[in-house]
Amino acid sequence: MIRLRDVSFRHEGVRDDVREDNQGGIALRRLSFDVPQGGFRWLLGPSGAGKSSLLRLLHLAVRPTSGRMEILGMDMDQTRRAALARLRRRIGVVHQDFRLLPDLPVFDNIALPLRLQHRPEDEIRDEVLSILDWVGLRARATARPPHLSGGEQQRVAIARAVIHRPALVLADEPTNALDDQQASRLMELFQDLAGLGTTIVVATHNDGLVRRYPAHELELAHGRLVRDG
Amino acid sequence: MDGWCAMADRAASGRRASWSQARRADGLALRNAIPDRLLPVLVAAMAVLAAMALAGATGARVLSARWTTGAASIVTVQVPRPDDPALSAPIAAQPAPLSRGDAVLAALADMPGASRVHRLDRTELEALLSPWLGHGGGFALALPAVIELHFDRAGAGDADALAARLNARAPDTLVERNSLWSDRLGDLARSLQTCAILAVLIVVAVAAATIAATTRAGLGARRQAIELIHSLGATDGYIAGRFARRTAVLAFTGGLIGSLLALPLLVLLSHLAAPFAGPPAMATPPDASGWAGLLDALPLPLAVTLLSLAPAAALIGWLTTQVTVRTWLRRLP
Lengths: 229, 333
Ligand SMILES: Nc1ncnc2c1ncn2[C@@H]1O[C@H](COP(=O)(O)OP(=O)(O)OP(=O)(O)O)[C@@H](O)[C@H]1O
Ligand SMILES: [Mg+2]
Prior knowledge:
heterodimer, A: alpha/beta, six-stranded mixed sheet, four-stranded antiparallel sheet, 7 helices, 10 strands, 24% strand, B: alpha+beta, 4 strands, binds adenosine-5'-triphosphate
C-alpha cells in the first residue's frame, strides 16, 4: 500500500529557483495519490518528467523534501533507520540502468535479496535456479553481467527484483531491452504477482505495451501528477 | 507458457544442478576491499611497539616496587660518642652502666617490625667513609656508631618517635629514614610508566587510524556494492559487521605475528632487567628470595601482555571499523 500527500522532491544540491518548465531541478511537485495493496499502476510521462525520481522515492533511496509518504503501511516521517532497512527487503526494484554487480556471477546477483534475508543456501539455490529457468538464463548462471546482452541483464535485474516475493515491486522501464514476447511474459508475471497481493508500479515509455495491458495510469509532466486514473 | 510463480512453488529440492558451490556471496567482496597483506603487517609492527612499551611499563612498576621497598625499609641511626656512658635506663635497674652505643642497640633490639639490626663494624665504617677521608684507617676523628635498621615493609617504624626514644638514652642520636631515595626512585618509575602508557596510547591511536583508513579505502572500493545491498535492505549493522569481522581477523593475525616477534625481545629485556630488580646498593646483597621473587613477578605480567596483544588488536580493529562503517553509511538514506 502506498499513500502520498503533497510530496515534493528536489535533488540534492539543486537550487530551488522554481521554473515552470521544470528545468530548475525540482523533480517532483506536491504529488498526492494512493495505490492499494495488489494494485497495478502504469507510471507514464515524457522523458525527464520525474518517473525515475518518483520510483526512487518509493523505494526509499531518497527521502521526500516535503510532504507525507506512507509505504507498505509505514509512515516515512516516523520510521527509524533500522525499520527502513526491513522495509526495503519487502520491496523489489528493477532499475532503469539495471544496477547489477559486475563482479558477481548472475546466480549471486539474483540471490542477493535472499542472502540478505539469511535464507538457507539450498533453498536459495532452488529459488534462483527456478527463476533462472523462467527468465531463460540458466545456462548463463555463472556468467558475469558485463558479458551479458542488454536484454539478458534486464532479465537478471527482473529476476533479482522478484526472487524474494516482495510486497511492492517498482520497475523502471523494465521492458526497454526486452523483445515483445519477453515483455508479454513479464506483464503476465506482474499480473500473477498483483493477483497474489503484490503492489506494482511500472514506469514505461512503451505505449504499445500500455495499450495491450490497460491498467490504472499515473501520468507525470514536469514533476506534477497530471493523471491518476 | 508456464508462469514463474507456479514454477517456483513447485521447485523441488530434487534440483541439484551443476551449481553446487555453496558460497555466501553478498557482493561486498571484502577479500578485495580489504587485502590481507598490508593490515596484518602494520598491526604486527604496532603490536611489537606496544609490547615493548608495555614491557617498559611493567618493568618500571616491578623495579620501582623493589627499589622503593628496599630503600624505604632501611633506617639509619647515628650515635655520636658511642663509648660514653648512656643515661640511666628508665625502667629496670641495669647491672652496669651501658655505653651509649650499646644502650641504643639494646633499645632497638625489641623494635616491632624490624627484621634486622646491624651495627656497622670498624671496617664497614671505614669503607663507608673512605671516599671522603681516604684509606689507611686509624682515623683521628671520633666516629659515631652507625646502626642499620631493616624493616620488612616500607614505611614501617615512625622515625620521629624512634628518635625521641633513643635520645632519652643517648642524646644527639640521629635517626634518618632513607626516604629521599625511595621518593626519587618512585618519581622516576612513575615517569617511566607514564611514558610507556603514553606510548601505548599513541600506538593504539595510530593502529585505529590505520584501520580506519584501510576501512575507508575498502568502503570506497566497494561503494557500488554497498549502495546496492543497502538499497536491497542490508542493515547498517550487517554491513558494519561484515567489515568489522574482516578487520578484526586481520588485526588478530597481525597481533599474533607481533607478539611472536616481541617474545624474544621481551625475554631478553626481562633478563637484562633482572639484576636491577634487587634491592638498591645501600642494602645488603640481594638474597635468594628477592631473585626468585623477581623471576616469578616479571614473566607473568609480560606473558599476560603478550597473550592480550592479539585479542586487543582484534578488538581495536572491530570497534574502529564498526564506527567507521556506520559513520560512512550515514550518507545513505
Ligand atoms: N541525481 C540528480 N541530480 C539532479 N537532478 C536530477 C538527478 N536525477 C534526475 N534529475 C533531474 O530530475 C528530473 C526528473 O528526472 P527523472 O530521471 O526522474 O526523469 P524520468 O521521467 O525518469 O525520465 P526518463 O524517462 O528519461 O527516464 C530531470 O530534470 C533530471 O534532470
Ligand atoms: Mg527514468
